[in-house]
Amino acid sequence: MPVSERQLAAFADQHAFQIPYDVSPRHLAGPGDARHVTHGLAAAGWNLTSDPLSAEILLHSPDHRYRLQFDPQSPTSAWWRLQAERSGTEPGWYAEFGQLVPADVLAHLTDALIASPQQQQPDPWQTVTASGWRRDPDGTAHSPDSMCTLELRPRSEFRKQESWHVEVCQPGHGSFSGPRIWHAYFDERAPAHLVGAFLTALADHRPLQRGMSDRTAHYSAVKEPSPLSPQHVVDAHTARIKALRVQARAARRHQPRTTAAPAQAGPAPQAARR
């Protein structure tokens, strides 16, 4: 399902009349435009398998191994769900993201999923500490404003495999956090380079662009007029989509043929701790 010129024109029309504002820190920038994710995957050949008239978006990769679901009517706090089926050489895995996750941050993960993984994988801890996050002895790291927490925790007391959790919470009192704003969860089998891509984009000091009236995740987000014009935002999106098309074609040419194992009946993947 390639991105059509009509779809790119619709993106351009919407953003052409929005005055860009720079919003930081990134974890408080708000959801932004979901098409940063969906256009990128469509450019890489992912297929829409959901009802076009439904609010839900369901995309499958060309090899049918990966599935991304966006459901703004979800009864849970996870609006984005990314799942990989087990293949002959690789395990299946699952990740989910809350309503207010910035789509342009999530797009860094989906872009990395499209591309071939790098030989040297980034250490997620080093990724965030290099951006000024504080790492504590209890196995957590905190953003400079203390509202975003990264934790590598055991899945349960009976299963010692560790999974990555990101939580953005309102300021609390003392050592207690306030209500959760959004979360991200990667199960213990999620590829390290995808976790690293997400965290690298999340901890980046550069602001994200939002329209003047776009929703932010919290009132403490810093919102300033951007030096970028609306056309800059549109051009950057168009250039990224074109680059992803080329990248996906190159990756498919060098990728061995693999077939995802049939989905096994059983309990749904364990979600993040509520």
UniProtKB/TrEMBL annotation:
Q: Which InterPro entries match?
A: DUF317_SPDY
Compositional bias per record (Low complexity), positions renumbered to this chain = 257-274
Start and end residues of each stretch annotated as Disordered: 246-274
Please list the residue ranges annotated as the DUF317 domain.
Answer: 60-118, 142-207
Pfam families from the xrefs?
SPDY (PF03771)
Q: What's this protein's name?
A: DUF317 domain-containing protein
Q: Which organism is it from?
A: Streptomyces coelicoflavus
